[in-house]
Amino acid sequence: METAREHIEAVRKKKFSIGGEANPLTEDLHQAVKNLSAELYAKDVHFLMELIQVPS
Q1: pLDDT value at position 53?
Q2: What is the rounded distance in angstroms from the CA atom of residue 26 to the CA atom of residue 17?
Q3: CB 19 within 8 A of CB 9
Q4: How far is the C-alpha of 29 from the C-alpha of 34, rounded, in Å?
């Protein structure tokens, strides 16, 4: 059975690419999320509508 530290290190490497090989898609994903959020919340009204939207 692995120790807690080994488990955390494994999760960091597998899930977040920390401490392991660099994932070439990380920068693309970062830019995609940045662009999506900029377009989605370009207007304050849109942000407020999303914030108060009631789930159906």
Answers
A1: 82
A2: 9
A3: yes
A4: 9
- Tokens for 43, please give them: 């207007």
Residues 6 or more apart whose CB falls under 8 angstroms from that of 46 comprise 40
19 token code pair: 């401490």
Name the region of 17 (left: φ>0; alpha: ψ -120 to 50; beta: rest): left
Domain boundaries, the chain: 4-52
Q: Number of helices and strands (H, E) in the chain?
A: 3, 0
pLDDT per residue rounded down to tens, the chain (56 residues): 689 999 999 888 888 778 877 778 888 988 999 988 887 777 777 777 778 887 75
Q: Give the tokens for residue 2.
A: 């692995």
